[in-house]
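Protocol step 4 of 5: obtain the predicted structure for the target chain.
Materials: sequence only (see below). No template structures provided, no constraints applied. The aim of this step is simply to have a reference model before the mutagenesis design in step 5. Sequence pasted as it appears in the construct record:
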Amino acid sequence: MSIVSSKMGVLSTGEELICYRLQNKTGAYCDIVNLGGAVIRIMVPDKNGNLDDVIVGYDTTESIEAWGGFFGKLVGRVANRIGDAHFTLNGKEYVLEKNNGKNHLHGGQTGFHNKIWDCEIADDKLVMTLTSPDGEGGYPAEVKVKVVYSFDENNTLSIKYEATADQDTILNLTNHAFFNLGGVNGTPVHDHIMQINADYITAVADEGCIPTGELMNIKGTALDFTKPYKIGERIFDTDKCEQLLFGNGYDHNYVINGYDKTLRLAAMTKEEKSGRVMETWTDLPGVQFYSGNGLGNYPDTRGKNGVPYVTHEAFCLETQFFPDSINHENFPSCILKKGEIFKTKTEYRFSVEK
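Step 4 output (C-alpha cells):
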C-alpha cells in the first residue's frame, strides 16, 4: 500500500487543504483530507473489476468548506446527540451548544469535523492528530486525539482511534461517511440489502431522537435487520412502526449483539447490480444506521460533479457508544478517566459477490 499527498486547494482561512491517497496494489484507493479527517472518496471494484466511488460527499475545496457538514468526517468530542445539550460529570454540570433543536449533535460547531488535523505518513498508514483544549465546546479536559487510517490489499479501510485526557471527560468518536455501493449516481439506496447484527435499538421518544433509556426489542418490526432486507422495503411503514416516524426513516442506534469490546461484525450491506459488499466491523457497542433521510432537503446544495443530492441517496453506519449515554446509567459508559487511554477500532471491508 502506498500513500501520496497532494495540495487540493486553499481554504478561506488561508490554510491548505491536503489530500492523502491510500492506494493498494490492485489500484483501489481511498482519499482523505486534513479538514475534519474526511474520507472524500473510496474507489473499489464492482463484480466486473470496474472501479467506482462509493462515497457520497464533496469533491472540491469550495464545496467541502461551504457545506461545513459531517460528510465523511471524524466526529467528536461526542458523536450523535446529547439530550438538552447538558450533562453532569463528577457532580458538575456542563452546558453544550444546542445545534440540533434543543439538543447537542456531533460536538457542535467547534467539533472535530471542522478542524484541520495534523497529518503524518508512517509505515503505510496515515496518522492524524489533534489537541482539543480544556473547555472547547463546553467539554472538560484537554484531550489529545490520534486517528490512524489504513487501506490494505483486501480493500479494507481501517480506522483506529486513540485519545488521552488531563482530567475526566466524555468521548465518543466516529466517522460519518455516507455510502452508496452502486456509485455516486444520484439514485437512492432503496435496493441496497442491509443486515445488522442487533436485536435491539435504543428507543427514542420523539423527533428529537434522544433515547428514552429503553433497549427496545425490534424482532419482527420494520427496524429488524437480523435477516437481510432491502433498505427501501419497509422504510415508509411509519403506520406500523412509530420509531420510523420519529426518525423520518432509519436514524437509529442499533445495539450490537454480543458486545464484549472485541472486534465483531456489526453490519453487512450489499448492492446487487454492482456486486459490491461492505462489512462494518467494530469493537464498540452500537452503530447508528442512517438512511440519508435529509439529503433531499437542500436542492441548491451541489454534491460531486455538481449534482444535487436526493433523499436516501446514501446510508451511514456510524460505530459508536450509544447516543446520550452520559445521561443513561444503563448504557455503556463513554467517560474517559484522567490517565486512561481511549482505544477503539472500526473497519469497513469491501468485497464483491458475483
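Step 4 remarks: The helical segments are 61-67, 242-247. Residues 147 and 321 are 17 Å apart (CA to CA).
Proceed to step 5.
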